[in-house]
Automatic annotation (TrEMBL):
The keyword Coiled coil applies. Residues 200-490 form the NPH3 domain. Residues 536-563 form a coiled coil. InterPro entries: NPH3/RPT2-like, NPH3_dom, SKP1/BTB/POZ_sf. This is NPH3 domain-containing protein. Residues 521-535 have a biased composition (Basic and acidic residues). Keywords: Coiled coil, Ubl conjugation pathway. Residues 510-535 are annotated as: Disordered. The lineage of its organism: Eukaryota, Viridiplantae, Streptophyta, Embryophyta, Tracheophyta. Belongs to the NPH3 family. Pfam families: NPH3.
């Protein structure tokens, strides 16, 4: 006689000892028959292991899927004991049945057919499909049987479908019920449909999947035509769950989708690095689908985790393509380099800005720059082009990094000069950044001061900025002269406008003459010619006064250039500044 010995207590095997010493031959045959009649593998192994000398025969099933628990359920099934099929054990039973060759050739309604029928029911339910897919992570045989792909396709189909077709709640519990309290066998309700269902209802469930399965899930929903905004939303949710460095940043305090009672172990740094790189690859390529804030947070986290250069370059290109949607707070990325010269990563922002300008230049290669009047800029942001928004952002960034004493002049110049002149209709912001830089770097020589001041256009300074610049001792003398010169030019334009108005008034005629209407001889009627003449005389007197002040200012500027004295002569110009202000107000 022989003995069947199965050792499966270690990892993926189980031990059973059948010895004929304790049973009669008839009972022994009856005991082993149910197993052999249902499993083709066991029948072959026992036939090959039969020994004529009656020595003990040992069979080891180390590769049995599901281990001891699965084999116990298989044994109960063979002996006719009722077993409970659930979404948590169905995959292991299906794999074990395939491994043991329990097909229809060894009995009608064998375990393969039974588990396949129940799997189809599992795939029709969202919650059961999520649980079944989770068990596939430790069962490599599930991939060979296409259980993983079938389960992911089922989930992708439900995630892409109209959420109003599903009962509420769709996920979160095994007993899905409709608002009326009717249990739904497959999670689909045809009565009492909710008025509205959030499109992100499935984010939380799929976030518990492992990264390989989650990647395949995202690829499946994208192939089924899901909106890029929803794909990006799921990726953001997944990243916030498994990247603790992103949750520590101030802009990510939203925990609406995270269950407070759920504790997620912190992944290792290597796992977080791999996760971040995969998320970047999965992000939709469409501009504006993923928020610039999230992309900048990803970029900052990528620098901390030291991801690959390809990953960081990808993020920089994505941010550069929609830099006009960024805010200054998120652009202040700390310097993570080994040789930390500056507090913030200036080089990273420079690369982002260069990519933005290259994209914009390609888009408007055949179009001329847009000229926007200063008056329209005050009406609201609707008139601001992307270049103007980025110019304001860069000027604000320069003002933040200017006080850094380690910031070199070439870096400051390169970043400021990357923005074209037409993108700055008003140069007050860049002047403010230059002033802060000069204040933090008092050791700059005159040539360097003049060099950095070339970044601004004195002609585009507002009245307040011009007043401040005329009294700024940190500016080179040549720049102050330019500011005064353009103010004089602006004043001349005002004077010319007064002359034009006065000439039009002098040459104008009474409207009644042009219409041929006779004049009445009222006693209190004022002669229009006398009224216009008095107005012209008064205007001419004001114009002459303005011309005298302009001439006085011009003489003062000439004196300033010839004498080349130091800054103690600057306060004398304040008198003329106040006069020019009165002229402008008049």
């Amino acid at each position: 006689m022989w003995t069947l010995f199965m050792h499966a207590l270690s990892m993926a095997s189980m031990q059973f000892l059948f010895s004929p010493e304790f049973y009669s031959p008839l009972f022994w045959h009856f005991f082993q028959f149910p197993l052999l009649s249902r499993s083709g593998l066991l029948e072959k192994l026992i036939e090959n292991c039969s020994n004529e000398d009656g020595s003990r025969c040992v069979l080891q099933l180390h590769e049995l899927p599901g281990g001891a628990k699965a084999f116990e359920l298989v044994t109960k099934f063979c002996y006719g004991v009722k077993i409970e099929l659930t979404s948590l054990n169905i995959v292991s039973l299906r794999c074990a049945a395939e491994y043991l060759q329990m097909n229809e050739n060894y009995g009608e309604g064998n375990l393969i057919a039974q588990t396949e029928g129940f799997l189809n029911e599992v795939f029709s339910n969202w919650v059961d499909s999520i649980k079944a897919l989770g068990t596939c992570e430790v069962l490599p045989h599930a991939e060979d049987l296409h259980i993983v792909s079938r389960c992911i396709d089922s989930l992708a189909m439900k995630a892409c479908a109209d959420p109003t077709l599903f009962g509420w709640p769709v996920s979160g519990c095994t007993n899905v019920q409709s608002p009326a309290g009717v249990v739904l066998w497959n999670g689909i309700s045809t009565v009492n449909k909710p008025q509205s269902v959030r499109e992100d209802w499935w984010y939380g469930d799929v976030s518990f999947l492992s990264l390989p399965f989650y990647k395949r899930m995202m690829q499946a929903v994208e192939l089924r035509g899901m909106k890029p905004e929803r794909v990006a939303g799921s990726l953001i949710f997944y990243a916030k769950r498994y990247l603790p460095l992103m949750n520590r940043q101030s802009s990510f305090k939203d925990t609406n989708h995270v269950n407070p009672g759920t504790t997620i172990p912190t992944p290792s740094e290597a796992d977080q690095r791999a996760l971040l790189e995969d998320i970047v690859d999965l992000l939709p390529n469409q501009k504006g689908v993923t928020s610039t804030k999230f992309l900048l947070r990803l970029l900052r986290t990528a620098m901390i985790l030291h991801t690959s250069s390809l990953c960081r370059e990808n993020l920089e290109r994505r941010v550069g393509a929609q830099l006009d949607q960024a805010v200054l707070e998120d652009l202040l990325i700390p310097n993570m380099g080994y040789s930390v010269e500056t507090l913030y990563d200036i080089d990273c922002v420079q690369r982002i800005l260069d990519h933005f300008m290259s994209v914009e230049n390609t888009a408007v290669a055949t179009a001329s720059p847009c000229i926007v009047e200063e008056g329209k800029l005050m009406d609201g942001p609707d008139f601001l082009t992307p270049e103007m928004l980025v110019a304001n952002l860069v000027d604000g960034y320069l003002a933040e990094v200017a006080p850094d004493v380690n910031l070199k002049l070439p870096k400051f110049q390169s970043l400021a000069a990357a923005v074209p002149d037409y993108a700055r209709p008003v140069n007050d912001s860049i002047y403010h950044a230059i002033d802060l830089y000069l204040k933090a770097h008092p050791w700059l020589i005159d040539s360097e001061r003049e060099q950095i001041c070339r970044l601004m256009n004195c002609q585009k300074l507002s009245l307040e900025a011009s007043t401040h610049a005329a009294q700024n001792e940190r500016l080179p003398l040549r720049v102050i002269v330019q500011v005064l010169f353009f103010e004089q030019l602006r004043l001349r334009t005002t004077v010319s406008g007064w002359f034009f108005v006065s000439d039009n008034l002098a040459n104008s005629q009474d409207p009644n003459d042009n219409l041929g209407i006779p004049k009445t001889d009222g006693s209190h009627q004022v002669d229009p010619e006398q009224d216009h003449g008095a107005g012209v005389d008064d205007m001419r007197e004001r114009v002459l006064e303005l011309e005298k002040e302009c001439l006085s200012m011009k003489q003062e500027i000439q004196k300033l250039v010839k004498m080349k004295r130091s800054w103690n002569i600057i306060p004398k110009k304040l008198v003329f500044r106040q006069k020019s202000q009165r002229c402008n107000s008049k």
